[in-house]
Design the sequence.
């Protein structure tokens, strides 16, 4: 008779995400993820097959869950622009230090060089931009942005600002990330806001 699973795959992937922040994908070991999750490395092999299988599962979950912070922010905020800022701040929240960001940026190498990882990254990036554009369109409808706001182009600029804010914060160490991100988004959207 098989033993019941006491740790869900989702909990294992969350633990893997934390371990990636500390070690990066290249330095990650199944033993490090197992220690983070409180399971044996054999459990990870049984569930994901290999380190690559685990990393692909992390990438797939990230793509699948891209909309979650946007959905949560919509429920918590009546203002579409407040929801946008809250969603992006929530996406950045797991990053607590420049070193942790470096660990997560190690995935970018996989995303750019491995077609399987790139597929997940492309889905996540596209979905993020769609979610941003939907909130910007809602902001136009709500009168928070001018009626002539170029929502598609502005969504791309917001996404670029988000990514740039992460890297700039990590390099300069100025303030906390959430405050820096909010300031950059406010500056970007200032000229599009209605009076």
Sequence:
């Amino acid at each position: 008779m098989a033993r019941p699973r006491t740790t869900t795959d989702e909990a294992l992937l969350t633990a893997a995400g934390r371990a990636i922040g500390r070690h990066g994908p290249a330095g990650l070991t199944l033993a490090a993820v197992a220690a983070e999750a409180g399971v044996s490395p054999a459990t990870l092999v049984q569930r994901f097959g290999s380190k690559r299988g685990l990393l692909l599962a992390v990438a797939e979950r990230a793509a699948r869950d891209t909309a979650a912070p946007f959905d949560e922010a919509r429920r918590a905020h009546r203002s579409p622009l407040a929801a946008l800022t809250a969603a992006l701040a929530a996406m950045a929240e797991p990053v607590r230090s420049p070193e942790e960001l470096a660990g997560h940026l190690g995935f970018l190498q996989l995303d750019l060089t491995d077609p399987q990882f790139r597929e997940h990254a492309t889905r996540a990036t596209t979905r993020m931009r769609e979610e941003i554009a939907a909130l910007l369109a809602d902001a136009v409808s709500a009168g928070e942005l001018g009626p002539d706001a170029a929502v598609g182009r502005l969504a791309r600029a917001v996404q670029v600002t988000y990514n740039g804010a992460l890297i700039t914060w990590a390099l300069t160490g100025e303030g906390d990330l959430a405050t820096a991100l909010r300031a950059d988004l406010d500056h970007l959207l200032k000229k599009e806001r209605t009076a």
Observations:
- The chain has a mean pLDDT of 92.
- Residues 107 and 113 are 10 Å apart (CA to CA).
- The longest helix spans residues 115-141.
- The radius of gyration is 19 Å.
